[in-house]
Amino acid sequence: MHLPKNLLIAGAVVLVTAATSAVALGATQRAHSAARTHHVQDSVQLALTPSSPQLATCMPGAQLNVRVSLTTDARGFDRFEIAGRHLPPKRDFTIFLLEQAGSPFGAAQYIGDFRTDAYGNTYNQLRLIVSEAFASTIVNGARTRVDLNRIGVWFADPGDDDFCLGAMSPTTPFDGDNSAGVQAFNSANAQPLPAP
């Protein structure tokens, strides 16, 4: 069978167009897949736990979760979200990035607050640099960088932990007015936040 030359050319154009479209579609699907993978890797989730067995006993069922969207390179800040359930109701808490999750804590940076409602629920969102947070300090006479990749949460008022620890519980400096209760939660049992 002998096909006209115009029909052969038209058929070749259709095949080339189809092949080009398939290649472009494949590239687009790979790009979307890579973007989804990149997005998943750009966030960190962790659960904070009570800082002592005594506090854990006094706050059964307490849940405090942190999600950090690592967007500093794209936006100049990360998004730090903290959400809690079954916490002591109607209390203020302070949030710190720490060198060490538990005492003696090392370097610390005060980053924000949250308050629980009448049911012990809370949510707050902060914008700050988390993935590269550090303190500059002097160690043995030399300036040293210390990564702050742990989280600690304190009762903001010294009396707010009395329901568990009694009226003689310690006062700590972990609030803006230099007068707070004990550390309530920390990330000792979770992965460290990303460091450079």
CATH architecture annotation of the largest domain? Sandwich
What average pLDDT do the residues reach?
A: 85
The number of helical segments is 4
**Assigned CATH class of the largest domain:** Mainly Beta
| Annotated CATH topology of the largest domain | Immunoglobulin-like
The total count of strands amounts to: 10
What is the domain tally? 2
Q: Give the helix proportion (percent range).
A: 25-40%
Shape: globular
Low-confidence stretches: 7-25, 30-40
User: What series of H and E elements makes up the topology?
Assistant: HEHEHEEEEEEEHE
Rounded radius of gyration (Å): 26 Å
How would you write the strand order of the largest sheet? 5-4-9-10-1-2-3-6
Report the portion of residues in β strands. 25-35%
Instruction: Briefly note the structural class of the backbone.
Output: alpha+beta
- N/C terminus separation: 69 Å
| Main sheet summary | 8 strands, antiparallel
